[in-house]
Amino acid sequence: MEKRVRVRFAPSPTGGLHMGGVRTALFNYLFAKRHGGDFILRIEDTDQTRFVEGAEEYIVSALKWCGIEPNEGVGFGDGPHKPYRQSERKELGIYKKYADKLIASGHAYYAFDTSEELDAMRKRLEAAKMVSPQYNAVTRQNMRNSLTLPEDEVKKLLESGEKYVVRLKVPRNEEIRFNDIIRGWVTVNSAQVDDKVLLKSDGMPTYHLAHIVDDIEMEISHAVRGEEWLPSAPAHILIYKYLGLENEMPKLAHLPLILNPDGNGKISKREARFPVFPLSWKDPREATPYIGYKESGYYPEAFVNVLALLGWNPGNNEELFTVEELSKIFEFERVHKSGAKFDPEKAKWFNQQYLRKKSDEELSEAFKPILKEKGFERDAAFMIEFCKLVKEKVQFVHEFWDHGKYIFIAPDAYDEKVMTKKWNPQNKELVTKALDCFKGITDWKTQVIHDTFEALVKEVGKIDMQLLRVLITGVAGGPQLFDMLALMGKDEVINRMNTALSKL
Ligand code: GLU
């Protein structure tokens, strides 16, 4: 029988969760939804030296903002497999049992080497030109461990409280094969695999042991994680095998890297061209905070849509998907093996598409506080009309200001190109006529302004609308002229034209 789909996102609280991590969470979430399964958030905090204050809370808030909510786990409610923090699970003795089992069956051993001894080993191997100096089937023979020391000495050392780690006993030359849902069959010779530490000297399990124990105990069906874990997978396969858990082992899926826009490396958190974190993140170890997608004005729906297409495609040219839609079609079969290049301009385009789906009411509500900050307030009808007119131009709500500020502020300069080309006595006279005829309008509405203007044109000949626009706003482009004039109000338009005509 196929196992119930249960997947997990298992970040370590070692810093803010960046977009690569969010994509891993997203793919897990979508897969769980698609198969009516469970999505779990497990916090892998066994490395106390890398623990960062605030990181766990950040992870939970980021997932909430993105709308990728686990149905079980830290910050999202307990299920039958609590606790979901590895440090708490360690206190329950969950991991030690498994390490003991591996020792008892001869697949793991105690190693007593001090850090000086390990350093010396590394130096020896480097001097002998070993490519990757590691603790393995060959080198362990010269080290202080329960495979080289006499049994009674090992016993004595353990009883005397000597510090030790537990290491996996990797065979010298054995083929390890496993199937990755995205990459297919992978074969690695065990000579490439080191004797990984499973239990550290502080009694904490390492990631390698802890995630296996938890994936088994939490009945995880698929372990979906970043490509950086692929090199460790052969060791994990051995651990499952030595624990007799090969049949219960989750299926593996290693997701491709997200590459920077130049395609020459992984996205770095120090990237200056675009945000890397979903929410702004202040790392307590660093002076400068990182700005998030949220604070840069992205909608979570747009951000998630962008992430979904980094390494996955729907098999056609469609690009706009809600999480709901994605969760009906997402499959690992369509996840690529190779790295996915991130395109920041395309990300902005996505935001624009979601912005266009918002109602003018919603947009005006969102723009109101920004406008207030700039020192302006307008009633709801004005705001709604303003958003309707300027909407086409903007990718983010804050850009309503950049693209429409001239509606609130009278110009102190006039587009040079247009003025050089079009400002002459004849046009000045025509504009003056337009001003006079605007003054006579009593019902200041788009259609009325339009009709009055057209009637004037019939009488006096073509009046340059672009020039008119520049005299009123200072800029050469913008929304439909008469709509804009109607919105600005008669007094404002007349005042601005008067100013222009007297100044120029
Ligand atoms: N704690 C690991 C990480 O932060 C999890 C890897 C996994 O999902 O197995 O990347």
Architecture overview:
There is one protein chain. With 504 residues, the chain is mostly helical. It folds into four domains: 6-73 and 211-257, HUPs (Rossmann fold), CATH 3.40.50.620; 94-210, Glutamyl-tRNA Synthetase, Domain 3 (Glutamyl-tRNA Synthetase, domain 3, Alpha-Beta Complex); 360-402, Helicase, Ruva Protein, domain 3 (Orthogonal Bundle), CATH 1.10.8; 416-503, Arc Repressor Mutant, subunit A (Orthogonal Bundle). The chain contains 20 helices and twelve strands. It has helices spanning 19-34, 55-66, 86-91, 94-104, 115-127, 151-159, 207-217, 233-242, 300-308, 323-329, 344-357, 360-373, 380-390, 399-404, 416-422, 425-439, 446-460, 465-473, 481-488, 490-503, and strands spanning 6-9, 38-41, 72-73, 108-111, 165-168, 175-180, 184-189, 197-199, 222-226, 251-255, 258-259, 340-341. The radius of gyration is 32 Å and the shape is elongated. Bound molecules: glutamic acid (GLU).
